[in-house]
Amino acid sequence: MSQDMADYLRGLGGEITTWQAAVLEVRAVLGGKAADVLADAFSVQRRTAERWIARAEGRTNQSSDPTRRNPGRAAELIAVARNRRAANKLRAARKVKAGKVRVRSKSPVKGRYGVMDPRPRNIGDRPAQGILKTALEAAADLVQEGEYGRAAALLDDGVMEAYGVPEGTLEITSYLSPPEIE
Fold it and tell me: How far apart are CA 78 and CA 8, in angstroms?
């Protein structure tokens, strides 16, 4: 797994830094189902989640700041919103821009594992179809759960297979230009 891809995936979540922004993000993505999802995720009544949404939207309600008594709840809510945003971007991807990458072998080469290949591979742009689309969808599920490292490894493997390298042969160690998912 390349750390470059994991860092890129974390960045897809955007700059959601407050619980209000997180609630608004969940509301924007899920619409009327946001209250049910928030209530389920944080083990609160649906009405409590509706009050959080009203407060975040600036409407008057009976809700106090939900993070005042439990500051950890804000961090959880921010993480949920960022993970969901990043996962949705992966699900909507049309192509992966990998550019040039450094690789190493995954299989034994002269009795050793992990032998670096000194030549960078120019992977270029790969359309999100076939094995890469499957990898993007699986990575989106992992990102939604906060598993960025596993998602990055899956995407790296999907990129290499889309490039034409048989599974289990080479793994990406680093991207020479930042990866991008469109």
Answer: 18
Report the pLDDT value the prediction gives residue 94, as an integer from 0 to 100: 97
Nearest of 142, 173, 172 to residue 9 by alpha carbon: 142
CA dist 77 and 134 (Å) reads 28
Using only C-alpha atoms, what is the Rg of the chain? 20
User: 7-41: per-residue pLDDT in tens?
Assistant: 999 999 888 888 889 989 889 988 999 999 888 88
Calculate mean pLDDT across residues 87-95: 95
142's enclosing H/E stretch is: helix 131-144
For residue 81, report the phi and psi dihedrals to the nearest 5 degrees. -65, -45
Dist CA 139 CA 176 (whole Å) = 22
